[in-house]
Amino acid sequence: MNPAARAGRWSAAHWKTAFVAWICLAAFFYLLGTSLGTVNLADADTGSGETARAQSILKHANFTQKATEEVLVRSPTLSVGAPAFRRAIRDVEGRLRMFPVIDLIRSPLDPSMRGMVSADRQAALVQFEMREVGQVARNHVQPILDAVAAEQKAHPGFTIEEFGLASSAHVLNKTVGDDFRKAEQLTVPITLVILLFAFGALVAALLPVGLAFTGFLGALGVSAVVSHLQASSDRTKSVILLMGMAVGVDYSLFYLRREREERARGRPPRAALRVTAATSGQAVLVSGLTVLIAMAGMLLAGNPVFTSIGIGTMIMISVSIVGSLTILPALLSRLEDRVDRGRLPFVSRFVRADGESRFWGTVVSAVMRRPVVSLCLAIAALLAIASPALGMHTRLLSYTDLPRSLPVIKAYTDIQKAFPGAQTPAEVVVKAPNVRAPRVVAAGEKLVERALATPYMKLPVTASVSPDGTVARINIPLVGNGTDASSDRALQLLRGTLIPATLGKLPGVETAVTGITAGTKDFNDQMKSRAPIIFAFELGLAFCLLLLTFRSLVIPIKAILLNLISVFAAYGALVLIFQHHWAESILGFHSNGAVVSWLPLFLFVVLFALSMDYHIFILTRVKELVDAGVPTDRAVERAVKRTAGTVTSAAVVMVAVFAVFATLRSLDIKQMGVGLAIAVFLDATIVRAVLLPAGMKLLGDWNWYLPHWLEWLPTLSPESRAAVAGSAHELDLAGLDRPAVHEQPARTIEPAAHALEAGDGDAPATEEVTRADPVEDRV
Description:
This protein is α+β, with helices and mostly antiparallel strands and 779 residues long. It has 28 helices and ten strands. The two termini are 18 Å apart. Residues 720-779 have low confidence and may be disordered.
C-alpha cells in the first residue's frame, strides 16, 4: 500500500481526530506566528556580490545612519533669491523645527551648503535628519508628511513635497499592505465561484477553499516562527498566499473530482475513497514532492530573498500535501454523498461526474488523428511566443518604477528632474583602521574631485563616518535614474577606474560600492552565475522523481522538455508585454523596458513545479490504463478526456488567483501574476491538450521504455491495479476484515481492472465491476 493510501485509510478511520488536529494546529501556529511577529530581512542583508560586502562592512561597524529626508521647494517662475521663495523656504524650516524627532536641518539658504540649489535656481532642497533610524523613523514620519502637505496648501504658487528613505518606506509598506489585503479579499470568493461552477454544489466547492485557506493561515504562522531563524522577505507573504490558494485548491480538486468520478461509476462511498486515496492521492503526493524539490532550488540562489521565498513556499506546499492526503479523505468519509448538497440550479446540470469535457474531447480526438501536424503546429506556436525572450532585459526596481499615483513617488520624480542622481547615489564604503587619517581623507577628496570632473557624477556629495572611526560612507550621485545605461557606465567608471586610482592604492584600506545601480548589477551577475546550478538541480531531481514514479526513461525526458517550452513561452510573453508600452493602459503600469531581475529565476522554479502538476496527474491516469492492459494510444486519449474537466477547473483557479496579483500596483508583483497566469494557461491548453497526447501517440510503447539494468529501481507509482480492482488487502479504509478477498486469484482481479475502464463499451461500468468482483458489494 502506498503512503497516500495509508494516509487515507488512517484518516477515514479516525476522521474526528484528523479534523480536530488540523483545525487546532492551524489555529495554534497562526496565533503563535501572530504573537511572535515576523522578522523581516534588513536592507543590509539583501545584497549580492560587492554590494553584499559593502552592506556587511556597514552592518558590522554598527553604521546606523539616521533617516535623512528632503523637502523640495520649487517655483515655475521665481528663483531662490526672490523674497517669496526665501519666505517659503523659511516657512518649511520653521514647520520642521516643531518636531522633536528632527535632529538636524540643512538649509539651502546657508552659503556653505553646496548642491542644495538646482542649476536653474528655481528649485531648492531642505534636508533634515531624524533622531531615529529604520522602522522607528518610519513610524514617526507621517505627521511630518502631513506638515509638508500643509505647507503646500499655504503656498499654492510653489511645489512643496517630501521624499526620503523613511517616508518612501512608510508609504510603500502601506501600499503593499493594502494590496495584500485586496488580494486576500478577492482570492477566496473568486476561487469559490469557480469551484461552484466546477462541482455544481456548494459543499463540494467549500471543501477545497476551506482546506486551502486554513492551510494558508497555518503556513503563515509557521513562516513567521521560522523567520526568527531565517529572516523573511517582504514578498514571502504574497507568494505564500498565491501558492497556497492555487496549489492547495488544485490538490483538493484532483482528489475530490476523482472520488466523485468513482462514485459516478457505481462504487460504494468507501470503495470510491479507497481508489481515490491510492491513485489520485499518490499523484498528489508525487506532484507535491516535485514542487518541493523545485522550490528547494531557490535555496541555491545564494540570495536571502530567494531563500526566504523558497522556505515560505515549501512550508505552504507541505501543508497543502498533508491537508489533501489526510483531512480531505477524513471529511469525505464522513460526508459521503452529502458532499453534493447545495446543488445549484442551472449549474449542476452542466457538470459531468466523469470529468469529461465535450470541447476538449473533440480537440484531443483531432490531435490523435493528426499527431504529427498537431505537434508541429503547437511547437511552432510556443516557439513564436517564446522568441521575444531572446531580447529580455532585467533590472531591479527603482523608485521610478513604483506607482506614480503615490505622492512620495511624484516627489522623487520632481527631485530627480531638478537634481539628477541626487536620490540614487553610489555609496562608496571605505574601511580602514582610521578613516580620519590624513592619507585616507586626501585619497577620498581626490576620488570626489575626479568623480565630479566626469560627466557621470554630480553634486551634492555627502560623507559620514561610523562611531568607531573605522568605516566611512561617501555618497556620490550618478547620472541617469539609477538603473539605466548612463548609471551603469558611471558605476563601471567608479569601480573600475576612479576608486583603484585613489583609495584603492592605499595599503590596509578596503573599499566596496553599493547603492541601487550597484545592487542591480551585482544581483544580475549572481543570478547568471547561479542559474546553471539551479537549472541542473531542478531538472536532475525532477527526472529522478518521474523515473521512479513511471519507471520509464522517456516519460521524464518528454515531461521536462514540454515544461521547458511552456516556461520559455511565458518568458517571451513577459517581454512582449512589459518591455513595450502597448499594454500599459490595459494592465495599469508604466514600462521601464525590463523585467524585474529576480523574476526569471523565480518563474522558472515555480512554473517548472506547477506545470509538473498537470503532467503527473494526467500521466498517472494513463499509467493506470496501460497497467490494466489498455493500448497506449487509447489510454492517452481516454485519460486526457477524463481528466479534462478537472485540469481545466484547476487551471482556471490558478489563472484567476494569479490574475488577482496582476491587478496589484507593485510592478514586480504585477509581472509575477501575469507571467504565472500566462504560463498556466499555455500549459493547460496547448501543452496538455496537444503536445502531450500527440507526443505520446507518436512514441507508442516507447513511452514506457526502461533498460533492464534499471529494473532494480524502487517505484513511487500509484497502486493502480490493486486499487482499481478494489482489493481489500491493499485499500481497506474502514479496517474491515475480508479474508476472502485476499484469496481471490489474480485472474479474478485482472478482469476487474479492465472492467473499470469499460465506460466506452455498451454495458454500464457499474455492472461490469460487479460481475468481475462480486466481493465489492460487501465493502
